[in-house]
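Step 1: inspect the first sequence and its tokens.
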Amino acid sequence: MFEYLKLFYFLLRPKTIFVRRISGALGDNILLTVLLPGLKRKYPDHKIVVETPIPELFLNNPHVDWITGKHFKTTGKFIKPKYRVAGKTGAPFISQIQGYIGSGDYALPELHLAAEEIDRARAEFDFPFVAIAPSGKTKFSANRNIWGIGNFQSARDHYPDIKFVQIGLTSEPLLERVIDARGRSLRETAAILKNSIFFLGHQGGFMHLNKAVGKTSVLIFGGYIRPDIAGYGDDMNLYSEVDCSPCYTSEEKQTDCPSMKCMKMIAVDTVIAAVDDMLGKSANMGSEHED
């Protein structure tokens, strides 16, 4: 009842802006955060309400006045950003989303962790370690965003002296010789990412979550979607340019790819070289954790 009363209050309040979810996907909801600082600058007297099925992504965000999971259609005071990408056409996701508030600024996603959340993860998972998520998400992309558990295992096995912490769902296969952190809440997972050296996985939701806590990634893109559309420039983005790439479209779910030739082009040695490069860039890995 209280939530409905609060909803009515914001609906009736003249200076309120509702930011509506793009979809139910993790990455799409994190990307809503790139709008919030610009909205506050443009409309400093307005209250900002975020409608999302993943409210924990917006906790402690200084640009949000209220978070709700209620979906409503009774107000015109809302922004529902969308992006459109079809094959080789389309601007970067963030640029398209920022266009809804007329902002030319480039912004990164943000997730605001409390100090105690970071400290709990730091106490449980001793630094240094690499966060890893070897399972690709198939609900929308079918098999087109999967490099393969065996490939990830081979990459992990190349580093016997480095700890790896696996994040993701408990239903996903667990690699050998990793610390199991599957099944954690999104904020717990974000705190693990925050405390890692970097993240190794596919492009997608965890890529955006990792960037939202200020960290870098080694990412398997294959030929599914171009990194300049969906990724971040300071990550190691492994993209395969083949005759049928990119095959991502925002217009419909994909079907299984029979050849997977873009993913097969990414050799384990290529990923190992990228991990080596990222480890070299993170040579002073303890500095952030000594503050």
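Step 2: inspect the second sequence and its tokens, then contrast the two.
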Amino acid sequence: MADQLFKRRKSALLREKNKIQKNRSQRWLFVCEGSKTEPNYIKRLIEYYNQKSDEADIIVTAEGTGRNTVSLVESVDDFLDKTAEYRRNSLIPYEKIFVLFDKDSFGAENFNRAIALCESKGYIPIWSNECFELWYLLHFEYYQCDSGRQVYYEKLSERLGEEYDKADNIFDKIHSDESIKRAYHNARKLIEEQADEASAAKKIPCTQMPVLIDMLEEKLKIKIV
């Protein structure tokens, strides 16, 4: 009797693990520094490209934590610990885990350490130097000045024809098939021009959003840029 019960429990556990493994292939987790700016944009971005793909949709969880750099990366483990599937089976229920954070005014050592910590844990760092709004601005123009985030806000306001508000879901205001191509190629140009600089903290302005766009193309089997 006890042996049969053990076998049933083992079989149920195996079925659950297989179900998690199947589901995780479509699930991406984004843990973000900002509570609204990045999560709102990421959700809308992937929703838009899900609709253009014949593949199964990417299921997005985007969490805004209000934490930054190293503490943000460490918070991913806290989030996973609260996930039922992870608690029961120690299986991470996400195919990919992205961590989005800005350099802002944080020290170079802290910023670089956060990137290294991400990579050591198998997370994908989508960092911005100095801030995520650089990616928005690159939808309109190539911008390579180390002028600070306040200037990005001002230039975005000019482009939008209204004051930029971090709480807005800005995706529909800046996105078109052409504008994202422009943003991607502008961002790639910034990355290439600073390729010889070893320290991410010194790559300014810079954004790793092209990494995400490449992964979206590959996963959804569509052409974005």
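Step 3: confirm your contrast with the notes below.
The chain has ten helices and five strands. Residues 217 and 223 are 6 Å apart (CA to CA).
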